[in-house]
Amino acid sequence: MVLLQTDPFLNELTNMFEHNTEKGSVWVTFKRSSLKSKVQKNKMASAGNEIEYRCLVRATNGKKTISTSVGPKDHQRFQASYATILKARMTALKKRERKDKRKAADADKKQKGSKKQATA
Predict the structure, then answer these.
(1) Which end of the chain has less Cβ packing within 10 Å, N or C?
(2) Rounded distance, CA 83 to CA 77, Å?
(3) What pLDDT does residue 112 have?
């Protein structure tokens, strides 16, 4: 797993989405983390120091895993950039033009009725 800065992470995430547009998946997970071991956290807690938690973001396509850590100050900017990437890359979720079910059923009935009259 590679821990990247936020901008290179977003660039790599965009590349992952591009490579998996036709076939494949990309999993993105968000997790609260202090990036410290339990021993270090326990020492800080016993000393009375406050632990700063960050958001650990991981992305994988099954073959490659990347991650980044986002602090509270950078969180809004990161979320805005992440949302822009998702909107641009998730084209399968766009609404497609569909026929109205009622109109399609009426058209089928008319076609069946005209066939019966033509055969009689």
Answers:
(1) C
(2) 10
(3) 66
- Report, in angstroms and rounded to the nearest whole number, the Rg of the chain calculated over CA atoms: 26
pLDDT 10s digits, 5-47 = 999 999 999 999 999 888 889 999 999 988 777 778 777 778 8
CA distance 120 to 115: 9
Distance CA 57, CA 33 (A): 10
**pTM reported for the whole predicted model:** 0.67
Q: Assign 1 to helix, strand or coil.
A: coil
The CA-CA-CA angle for residues 35, 19, 25, to 5°, reads 65
Handedness of CA 93, 13, 54, 39 (dihedral sign): positive
Supply 6's token pair. Answer: 């936020």
Domains of the chain: 2-119 (3.30.720.10)
Whether 1 and 66 have beta carbons less than 8 Å apart is answered as yes
